[in-house]
Amino acid sequence: MTVPHILIVDDDEILASLLQITLEVEGYEVSTAPDGEAALARLAEGGIDLVVLDLVMPKMDGVRFLRVLNEQGEARPPVIVISSTAGNTVSDEFRALGVVAIARKPVEPSWLVQNIAGALGRGAANAE
Q1: Which end of the chain is more exposed for a tag (fewer CB within 10 A), N or C?
Q2: What is the pLDDT along the chain (128 residues), one digit of tens a residue?
Q3: Residue ranges of domains in the chain, CATH in brackets
Q4: Phi and psi (nearest 5°) for 26?
Q5: pLDDT score for 85
């Protein structure tokens, strides 16, 4: 069984590092990207099973990233949004763009781990 690979997309290096450590302890392989442009380049390399995405970033923000990813028309990984500007409910627009869960920062590590497991089909998690 292969280890799921998660891409964390956030310009906050400290938060991205904390999330990376948390997810690596849970047994996931983790990569990071500081913005949507870098994330799209990393996704083009393949092997990403899930994206944890901030919405407010330089160069390309999270919403633009989701739209570009959706326009590419290829199979896309599920996305969990964590943002200081987000609510806690996935809107129909976000759901259509592949978002399976959303939370305001700071996100509880247990919530993130549970929702990642649910999105990857690795346990009974509430993906909302």
Answers
A1: N
A2: 689 999 999 999 999 999 999 999 999 999 999 999 999 999 999 999 999 999 999 899 999 999 999 898 777 899 999 988 776 667 888 888 889 999 888 889 999 999 999 999 865 433 33
A3: 5-119 (3.40.50.2300)
A4: -80, -5
A5: 77
Structure-token match 């759901």, residue found: 95
* Residues 11 and 58 sit within 8 Å (Cβ to Cβ): yes
Is 84 in contact with 56 (CB distance < 8 Å)? yes
Indicate left, alpha or beta for 5 from its phi (over 0: left) and psi (-120 to 50: alpha).
beta
CA distance 42 to 27: 20
CA dist., res. 105 & res. 2, Å (int): 30
Q: What's the farthest any 2 CA atoms get from each other in the chain?
A: 36
Closest by Cα among 19, 23, 3 to 11: 19
Residues in the chain: 128
